[in-house]
Every structure is written in C-alpha cells, then in structure tokens.
Input
Amino acid sequence: MHISITSHRDPEPLDLTAFERIAEFVLDREDVPLAAELSLAVVDIEEMASLNERFRGVEGPTDVLSFGCDDPCATESDEPVTLGDVVIAPEMAEQQASEHGHTIEEELNLLLVHGVLHLLGYTHDTEEDAEVMRAREQGLLEAYAESL
Output
C-alpha cells in the first residue's frame, strides 16, 4: 500500500505520520489490495472552501472531501491501483471537535476514516446508508484505538 500525504499549509503543525498509520489500518481492515495507492492532502480553510464550491457547488468550507477514481484509476501494469484523494481541513476539525466534545485528534481520525470509506464505496445518501457508514466508522475507530 502506498499512501501519499501532502500539506498545503506552511508550516504544518500536525504529525502527518499519524494520518498514514490510520489510513493504512483502515485500508487493511477493508481488505484493500496491497497494490493500492491513496493520496491525502491537508489544506487550510480557504482552499477547502474553494474546493467545496468548485466540486460540490456549495459555498464555504467543509471538513473533508473525497475524490474517487472510476473503476479504479487506470495504471501501468506494475503500478499500484489509485483509489483517489482525501482532502482534510484541520481548522474545521478543530471547530467540530469543540462542538462535539472530543479531541482534535479524534475528529481528524474520524474525518480521515470517513473520507477513505467514501473512496471505498460507502455513502450517506440515504438514512440506511448513513447508518451503515457511521457503524463502520465507529467500528474502525474503536479497533484502531485498541491496536495502539
């Protein structure tokens, strides 16, 4: 598995290796083949607002966006299969953590798991789909916490 993480914030105060660990954990638990690639970008609130408006037509920032590849993205035969991109805005996570009464780390982990699950086909378009996705997120987060 190859996980590429970039930060568009300077300087980046977060430990980006923590993102890599949880992303690897989720991909492993979801039985994603080792020949897979995931890209993660950490952006500021202004960039997230721009992406949200450009790709979703929604004004203002959001916490996480996922940009999946179709079928998955075509690659050369010896290259990993690209799952897609997850984009996270830590400033939004900070606001939401305060609102929900948990730590920023917990909120960031939830956002990353949520974004990766979207790339793997989970949705929350219906209440039933949302329940399935929330349950899977919670199960993965609990298993990850136990693995530390």
Summary: Strands lie at 2-7, 36-42, 64-73, 81-88.
